[in-house]
Each structure stands twice: as structure tokens, then as C-alpha cells.
Amino acid sequence: MRRKNTPNSIRITCGCKVNLGLRVTGVRADGYHELDSIFYSLPYPCDDLIIRHTRHTGVIVRCNTPSIDPNDNTLTKAWAAFAQASGDLPGIEIELRKRIPQGAGLGGGSSDAAALLRWLNSTCAFPFDKKTLRNMALSVGADTPFFLQNTMCRVHGIGEKLSPLNDTFSGFYLVLVCPDIHISTLWAYARYDALARTANYLVQQKNLTNRQAKDNKKFSFKKTSIEAFCNDLEAAVFPGYPQLAAIKADLLLLGADAACMSGSGSSLVGLFSRAGAAIAKNAAEALRTRQQRVFLLPL
């Protein structure tokens, strides 16, 4: 495949996403869970990819986080998927500067993979179309296609069915709390399944603001109706990590209009109204004093 002339080194910043609500709607025969959620992209926390051309074949990944396997990660998977489709790729070295917490429900690895796929496609004289690139992303992870577009989406299936939404949260303020806790996605869903098998089980949302949402199809946010802003996985995760439930309670006590866990955790999201800038700022400052990574983001 013909390739464009590109710089010897390039730096790409990769943002993250949060789940504004997550409902588990079913389990497929292969064990994957089907979801109904809203994905919302954020500019930070973020990772950096520094990509350099090399004289060697293949891809070399170096990372400042020892827990990431340099030979088997979302970047190597994305490179392999693109190489298989294109049949010809130059050798590259990727320095991954990781700042998005792992095991936090923020999709950092998927964001990195999508950024690499976009860059590889930009180097082609005849780039792949969106559908082909999306299929490459899906081979890396269910939520990787979302990062190819980075717009607010309603998400179904296992995370791969995306429906873009108008950004009804524009002007709101979001406080993101990232405790130093790693939650395994596999563990969280296994706990959820175990709870769902118990007799007379009713999913307890641990929604400290309102009753359990009755209509899984509605994710509208209103000051007086925020029951849809909740996460089914909280019932599975919070008993094992009560400190996360405490952070959610703190967000609400500090003035958030709604709060929930993002994805399978461990990060927590608090949403503040357009008129709540000062309240959001004070909440973020109060939570930072407790030695947690806290981000205040205007939406």
C-alpha cells in the first residue's frame, strides 16, 4: 500500500470517556453482557503516544507503566489489525505515556488504540473507509470504535452499537474522581452475574439520589428526575469496595445533581448543573484534600 511522507516523530494526545449511566440489559450466549449506556468523551485525564519510525519491522511499545505488557496490549493489537488489512506497514516505535488510570472505567487502552488506528490511516495514500476502520477497532475492543468519533453516544450491544446524541450536557460541570483502586472488568461482571442468580434478587442501584429507574430506555437528565443516571454494576462493586460508595455519597453531599460509577469502576462521576460552577469547584477542591485524583471539567 502506498504511504504518504510523514514526520519521523509525532505526538498524539488520547482522551478518555465516562459512562453517564449504565444498564445491563442481557447476557449473550458467549458470556458478553449487553448494555444500555451513554458514553461521553473527555479531554483529560489523557495519555500521550509518541510515535517514531524505525528501520525494523513490526511495532515496539514502551510504556511508563510496568503493568502493561509491551508485547500484548491494545496498541499491538491495533497495529496488527491494520497491518493485516493493509498488507504493508513500516516499522514503528511507540512510547506510551500513561496518565489515564487503569481499571478505572475510562477506556484508556481503547482510546490509545483508536488514536493509533486513525494515525496509521492518515499515513495511507488511499485511506480505509470508516466502516473498515471501525471493524479494525472492534477487533481490539468493544468500546474502541467509540473513540474513532469521540462524540456523545447512546451505546447498546456489548458497547459496539453507537447512536450519536445531541450534547444535552453542554454547559454542565463534571467532577471526576479517580481513586487509587484497580477494578477488573471481568471481576465486576462476574460479581454482577453471581448476584443476579440469587433468589428473589432485585438489582439495587445504590442510587443515593432517587429510586431505581424503571425505564431502561430513557437517559434524559433533569434536576427533578435523575434516576436514570445510575450504574447497575454498582450493586456488584460497592460491597467489595465500600470506599467507592463513600465517594459517590460525598459527591452528592457536596452538591452534585447526580453521581454514579463510570463503567465497571473505579472512577466516580458527579454532574453539576450549568448554574453550579462554584459548587462544582468547591466539591473538587474538597475531594482533592483527601489525596484522590480529581478532575473538574466544564462540558
Automatic annotation (TrEMBL):
It is an enzyme of class 2 (transferase). Gene3D superfamilies: 3.30.230.10, GHMP kinase, C-terminal domain. One of its GO terms (biological process) is terpenoid biosynthetic process. ATP binds at residues 101-111. Keywords: ATP-binding, Isoprene biosynthesis, Kinase, Nucleotide-binding, Transferase. Pathway: Isoprenoid biosynthesis; isopentenyl diphosphate biosynthesis via DXP pathway; isopentenyl diphosphate from 1-deoxy-D-xylulose 5-phosphate: step 3/6. GO terms for molecular function: 4-(cytidine 5'-diphospho)-2-C-methyl-D-erythritol kinase activity; ATP binding. Its EC number is 2.7.1.148. Belongs to the GHMP kinase family. IspE subfamily. NCBIfam families: ispE. This is 4-diphosphocytidyl-2-C-methyl-D-erythritol kinase. It comes from Candidatus Desulfovibrio trichonymphae. The lineage of its organism: Bacteria, Pseudomonadati, Thermodesulfobacteriota, Desulfovibrionia, Desulfovibrionales. The gene is ispE.
